[in-house]
Amino acid sequence: MKIKQKKSKINFIASLVMLMISSFYFVSCEDVLDIEDINNYDPEQIWNDENLANAYMANLYPLFGNWSIGQDSYSQQLTGIRFYPDMITVTNGNFKNWDYDRIRLINQAIVDVQEGTLPQDMKDQILGQAYFMRAYIYFDMIKYHGGIPYIKVPQDRYNDDLHVARNSTKESFQYLVEDLDSAIALLPERIGPNSNEYGKIDGNFALAFKAKVALYKASPQFNPSNPWSNSYWEDAYTINKQAYDQLSSQGYALTDDYSDIFLEERGPEVVFAVINTYPNKTANWDVGARPGSESRGPASVTPTWEFVKEFPMLDGKMYNDPSSSYFKTDEEFLMDYWSDRDPRFDKSIVWNGKLYEVSGKSGKRQYTALGIAHELDDFGVNPQAAVNSTNLDRYSGFFVLKASKLSYTQAEVEQYDVDYVLMRFAEVMINYAETANETGRLNEAMEILKVIRKRAGIEPGVDGNYGISATNQEEMREAILHERNIEFSFEGHRFWDLRRLRMLDRLDNTTKSGVEAIAIKPDGTAMPIGEARNKADNYELVESDFKYSVLQVPFSGVKVNSVPETYYFFPIQQEILDRNNNLEQNIGWGGTFNPTLEN
């Protein structure tokens, strides 16, 4: 690996900059556009000009992603059969992450900015952002594959040695933490919500992310032979407590109302957000979440009945827990599942008959019953409807409400520009709770979960434990995992939590289901479809005016296949190996490389 003595022009970067400067909020578009013939600028010019330097860095920020409605379809939360036979192979692109093109751009910035004439404080900010970005990308790659070639210099694809071997997983974590420490030392500790710089990486985000990295390093994924008592857990506890304490002292806190976490932007819970601003930068969350009749086509994914059942009751206990004040049998629960639930259920999911005042429609209720609901919303096989649903293989009778901006009309749904919260303080808290529990600090973990549940609106109970009955480490581990499942629903955590904890077997041979609603009269007999439709048109039918039954999704009867043990580390794609004969493939995928920390 050689650093080039004479840097070549990187005109393609400047072209990409032009694509970004019109939409990225913290770049001064007016100043940049005054520059003539930007495509001819080389690195020397970029790192001697504040506007071009900012534009270069802005071009890298898309690495943090944006809203994605289907993130949790790989778990039980959302419909969709994702783990079919050979879903992941060495040759296909599924679950592969090898982002060295972006790494090269970051390494170029780290080397070149130090040779430019920018003010030192700006150099430090750029370096801090770049070190963090490099660590962020490498962490994602390590999470997928284990140890990777941790390249720290900008390689030239024609003149430098690209045939680099993989660093061990232990070395990869070491270099990653070094990058994060460098970032923390250089970045401003906090960029406040009123700052013009808001949306850039700050030291608090870097510290919270470092704590998350430590959680992964200690996890069963990387320590399968000693998952719960390895020495990394104490290190993880120390840094997670530091992150929690530091952010708490600076005013980070849970948003009062769970519904407002995303919709009231720049709130106290936001640790880092990707800024969206219509019309320059929007996301597709509402397009994918809303019922088809209120969107631009069918919903992309829908919540499953299995996940609906996992939300606790108002007292924090499960519906079938005999000690719950709201205990119900399975049959009773099916006919009244919306009542007396954890308030996060009401704020996360839309169900048949629910008051759903979307698009400014006062008093609107959402229906899913076949023959009553809009054809883009219906789900069921009711023969009295005299029509077939086209949604049986994709819908469930539920829709996602969380983070939906109901004020948008149907015509405006593609204007969704709510900021994407990549990390929120609740995650910092629960990460801390997990490391506290795994190091024998059960009471600290309990206190964190109680705060989370109090914000949710769960009843404290006579013991003040908000329905949490864990009295030992294993029970608390399950309580924390359950809380992650509910608190971070549809935010893309569940599959990765199960994988990190080596619990993917919980997805084995599971079935995803939905709930059909059929309108009934007070005596329990079926209501004539015409009468039911007329009542629904006036939003007169409520949840209790229906009977319910469970249908498998997809209706064809396909189940989720067993998730192989090898999925705890994904393979490097064969075409990458073919270009670099120094790379070893992972054990379990035809290679000899051990991606865990146990080597």
Automatic annotation (TrEMBL):
Q: Which family does it belong to?
A: Belongs to the SusD family.
Recorded source organism is Arenibacter certesii
Spell out the subcellular localization from the entry: Cell outer membrane
Which is a Gene Ontology cellular component entry for this protein? cell outer membrane
Can you name this protein?
Membrane protein
The residue ranges of the RagB/SusD domain are 278-589
Stretch forming the signal peptide: 1-29
Name the InterPro entries for this protein: SusD-like_N (IPR033985), SusD_RagB_dom (IPR012944), TPR-like_helical_dom_sf (IPR011990)
Indicate yes or no for the key word Nucleus: no
Would the keyword Phosphoprotein be found if you checked this record's keyword annotation?
Answer: no
- Which residues does the UniProt record annotate as the domain SusD-like N-terminal? 72-191
Per the annotation, which location comes first and is thus the protein's main one? Answer: membrane
Q: Which Pfam families match?
A: SusD-like_3, SusD_RagB
Keywords, A to Z, come to: Cell outer membrane, Membrane, Signal
